Amino acid sequence: MTEPPTGTPEDAGRTATKATGTATATVTVPMIVAGICLAIPFVAMLWVDSYSRLTPAFIGIPFFYWYQMLWVLISTLLTVVAYTIVRRHERLRQSARAREAGERA
């Protein structure tokens, strides 16, 4: 018969990570900020009561329309911010892994 594994589940995950060379997913502050940047436009557009009106008009365009067009630009900017945060975070993780691998060798 097979014996049950010894140690805690956390230990098993660490050894599997070291054996396969893959990193485990961790939730960090930059990733939370990036997620919030991506969630803000969804919340703004799903909260219909905030923009379902005609006034104030902007250069003759009812509020309902220009508010949504403004969110197209804001969403683009927030997506760029989230992308930049994630890319920077990934570069830092890769350089830390490379440094760690260099110290082991």
Give the overall shape: elongated
As a percent range, the share of helical residues equals 55-70%
Number of helices: 3
SSE order, as H and E? HHH
Question: Could you describe the largest sheet, including whether it forms a barrel?
Answer: none
Distance between the termini: 39 Å
Report the mean per-residue pLDDT as an integer. Answer: 81
Measured by DSSP, the beta-strand proportion falls in under 5%
Write down the Rg.
23 Å
Q: How many DSSP E strands? A: 0
Structure in words:
This protein is an all-alpha fold and 105 residues long. The chain contains three helices and no strands. The longest helix is centred in the last third of the chain and has 42 residues, at 63-104. The two termini are 39 Å apart.
What are the main properties of this structure?
single chain, 105 residues, mainly alpha, 69% helix, elongated
In short, what is this structure?
This protein has 105 residues and is mostly helical.
